[in-house]
Amino acid sequence: MRVVVIGAGVIGLSTALCIHERYHSVLPSLDVRVYSDRFTPFTNSNVAAGLCQAYLADPSNPQEVHWNQQTFDYLLSHIHSPNAANMGLALISGYNLFREDFPDPSWRDTVLGFRKLTCRELDMFPDYSYGWFNTSLIVEGRRYLPWLTERLTERGVKFFQQKVESFEEVARGGADVIINCTGVWAGALQPDPLLKPGRGQIIKVDAPWMKHFILTHDAEKGIYQSPYIIPGIQAVTLGGIFQLGNWSEVNNIQDHNTIWEGCCRLEPSLKDAKIIAELTGLRPVRPQIRLEREKLRFGSLNTEVIHNYGHGGYGLTIHWGCALEAAKLFGKILEERKLLRMPPPHL
Amino acid sequence: MAPVRIAVVGAGVVGLSTAMCVSKLVPGCSITVISDKFTPDTTSDVAAGMLIPHVYADTPIPKQKQWFRETFDHLFAIASSAEAEDAGVHLVSGWQIFRSVPTEEVPFWADVVLGFRKMTEAELKKFPQHVFGHAFTTLKCESPTYLPWLEKRLKGSGVLILTRRIGDLWELHPSFDIVVNCSGLGSRQLAGDSKIFPVRGQVLRVQAPWVKHFIRDGSGLTYIYPGISNVILGGTRQKGDWNLSPDAEISRDIFSRCCALEPSLHGACDIREKVGLRPFRPGLRLQTECLAQDGRRLPVVHHYGHGSGGISVHWGTALEAASLVGECVRALRTPTSKSKL
């Protein structure tokens, strides 16, 4: 049973790992491979700050709430291990700021210690009049992806650097099941008018005195278009850019100025922070994540595809729940083909 | 009128902040800070600088709360400004955890720090050995950065800084009119005060930049305090121990206690040991004494004995010390006292 995962961002690697963990012992013939043209550190997962926080509005697919929760719980269970730093995991607390009262989000009980901000705390942010404080997690792509790669390599999963031009080419190459984790470029393999790039630009600075994330929200501007500051393990990410439909992967000077001015206004101590890097990424924006099976036929070949793409700006936040769901769908394929030696492990 | 000449003895957080308060609040003075040790070699430099108050047995709680609040508000303004990095002051959130529910569930300083509340059940899961905790946001004031920042501002205000070891406060007479004694443990000799004794503290400074929260266990013997360029792991409280050399066995024990609270610390590297001697006294000494000898008079404002709470209350006590200095200056300038001389 050859499984080819296309895409080596957080979605591709975590889905590959989840499937291998759950099925290799009950399916001796399981051969998982990862095909991608980009690997860490050149994926979108590497640009993302990695703060586990879902969108403020309820997702159109209620399953996404569950997948976010599963991911948070999974990562939280690893926070206590000596491996946490190698995985790029850290607990982090911080502020969500609004210009007017805002209803509590669906994830208020997922994160830790969620509460409203006190007046004295709001005094720190003169442009904002309401907000939340909570403890969440960061999972940094630059450490997490190599960690996932190591776990996969230990399990004998092979990686191939190549640009896949079509599902057909992969099917004819011998793949029984294709896991499509191609993110923002999924449209190249199969047109998807619902999928669009949400271009983001970030500045990484050296500001180790910053211990809290600060996310601002502006109802008029929309998600990710208001300044945000997210400390990582080594560097602090400054952002606030979201351009729907912009495919440019090149840094833009106006966007740099927007980010810099917005973040320094929010946090004056940043004015002298040293800039370490500036990066652009394309969020794979879709009204909801495409996580479903599709049967494709190429001549006499019947190939199963599991799509797992369109995670917008919350891929790291939701990745493990989606990987579990993809593994469930894979299990159904195995059942249908009567390939399982024993009942599948409880997911 | 000639300026009143004031000598501040000691250049730790207490000495420098007192000099700053005097320079701002007491007009018509010239100030010189005199010390044998300056940053990074003072006791303050070893302290993590977390604003969590120590309780002074002899001082009424409202006064201690006032000192803490004044210090917190002062540093909070710095942390919220563009000066935060230069001054070494930043906000940090975290947890104070207990193995059994403390008799005092809400400490006196709960409404001075930010967002103080009890930990939730979910938060306590992180600490299986603990049943109760507080979550809050406070400040960290790092002396290796704060003291140089204070020194720079003092020099900018015309305060002189002198490196010299003083063996006896009378050495400062007649060059100075008033002495402010911020010599911490040095007061054993300088003020002949046998009530002040060291409480030795050993700490580890490690690299563990993924640790963003402080964790303080119960009474505060074991703690993890993340700072700007390192994480401080502690600690010890060894009464009457003057030994400034780190002890390897103690270091292993500190590391082990801290890893038990935060297992990810096993990945910490670049571990360095430091020792500081907390200037402990049954009560913090903040009072004026008029020394007299062979017809000479020397007003001394004593400002020492902060124990483990120096950084937490330094600005509040410095304001009070400056007020005492102000009284001395007024007394020196009134005709009655001059005629006594």
UniProtKB/TrEMBL annotation, chain A:
InterPro entries: D-amino_acid_oxidase_CS, DAO, FAD-dep_OxRdtase. The keyword Endoplasmic reticulum does not apply. One of its GO terms (cellular component) is cytosol. PROSITE patterns: DAO. It catalyses: D-dopa + O2 + H2O = 3-(3,4-dihydroxyphenyl)pyruvate + H2O2 + NH4(+); D-proline + O2 = 1-pyrroline-2-carboxylate + H2O2; D-lysine + O2 + H2O = 6-amino-2-oxohexanoate + H2O2 + NH4(+); D-alanine + O2 + H2O = pyruvate + H2O2 + NH4(+). The keyword rRNA processing does not apply. Keywords: Cell projection, Cytoplasm, FAD, Flavoprotein, Oxidoreductase, Peroxisome, Phosphoprotein, S-nitrosylation, Secreted, Synapse. D-serine binds at residues 228, 283, 313. Its EC number is 1.4.3.3. D-dopa binds at residues 53, 217. Residues 2-329 form the FAD dependent oxidoreductase domain. FAD binds at residues 37-38, 49-51, 164, 182, 312-317. Its cofactor is FAD. GO terms for molecular function: D-amino-acid oxidase activity; FAD binding. It is found in: Cytoplasm, Cytosol; Peroxisome matrix; Presynaptic active zone; Secreted. It comes from the Eukaryota. It is an enzyme of class 1 (oxidoreductase). One of its GO terms (biological process) is D-serine catabolic process. Transmembrane segments: none annotated. Belongs to the DAMOX/DASOX family. This is D-amino-acid oxidase. It comes from Odobenus rosmarus divergens.
Automatic annotation (TrEMBL), chain B:
It is an enzyme of class 1 (oxidoreductase). Residues 1-19 form the signal peptide. InterPro entries: D-amino_acid_oxidase_CS, DAO, FAD-dep_OxRdtase. Keywords: Cytoplasm, FAD, Flavoprotein, Oxidoreductase, Peroxisome, Signal. It is found in: Cytoplasm, Cytosol; Peroxisome matrix. FAD binds at residues 43-44. One of its GO terms (molecular function) is FAD binding. Residues 5-323 form the FAD dependent oxidoreductase domain. The keyword Membrane does not apply. Its cofactor is FAD. GO terms for biological process: D-amino acid catabolic process; L-aspartate catabolic process. GO terms for cellular component: cytosol; peroxisomal matrix. Pfam families: DAO. It catalyses: D-aspartate + O2 + H2O = oxaloacetate + H2O2 + NH4(+); D-glutamate + O2 + H2O = 2-oxoglutarate + H2O2 + NH4(+). SUPFAM superfamilies: FAD-linked reductases, C-terminal domain (SSF54373), Nucleotide-binding domain (SSF51971). Gene3D superfamilies: D-Amino Acid Oxidase, subunit A, domain 2, NAD(P)-binding Rossmann-like Domain. D-dopa binds at residues 223, 278. Its EC number is 1.4.3.1. Selectively catalyzes the oxidative deamination of acidic amino acids. Suppresses the level of D-aspartate in the brain, an amino acid that can act as an agonist for glutamate receptors. Protects the organism from the toxicity of D-amino acids. May also function in the intestine. Belongs to the DAMOX/DASOX family. This is D-aspartate oxidase. It comes from Odobenus rosmarus divergens (Pacific walrus).
